[in-house]
Specification:
Elements: H1 2-20, H2 25-45, H3 66-97
Helix pairs in contact: 1-2, 2-3
Length: about 120
């Protein structure tokens, strides 16, 4: 079970980084969301992967740690706010520039100078 979770976290992290390196803002937002999902699963898995164990009550050998669950809830709220901010920044950039490309200059073109 631990190997499956570790592979899933690695795959989500790799997909998130790949999507964040794309040239469109929509894929950057998707990559950011994928990275936050990977961090949430990592935080949740850090509290031991025990099925059916109560968070605090019970015998000492079958407890699951409630702190990672609280951290995941906090991380979900933070990632929702951060995603909303990035979406609004991307929308503002799209409305100002008329395109959703991150790098507006074409390869091989010289940047315009102000003089």
């Amino acid at each position: 079970m631990e190997v499956l979770v570790a592979v899933a976290i690695g795959a989500m992290t790799a997909a998130g980084i790949y999507l964040m390196l794309r040239l469109r803002t929509f894929t950057v937002v998707l990559g950011l969301s994928m990275l936050t999902y990977a961090v949430n699963v990592f935080l949740f898995a850090s509290g031991r992967l025990v099925t059916g164990a109560p968070p605090i009550l019970g015998s000492l050998d079958e407890l699951s740690d409630p702190l990672p669950q609280a951290l995941v809830l906090t991380a979900i709220v933070i990632s929702f706010g951060m995603t909303a901010l990035v979406v609004m920044l991307a929308l503002s950039a799209y409305l100002n520039a008329g395109t959703d490309e991150i790098d507006i200059e074409k390869p091989g073109e010289q940047p315009e100078t102000g003089g």
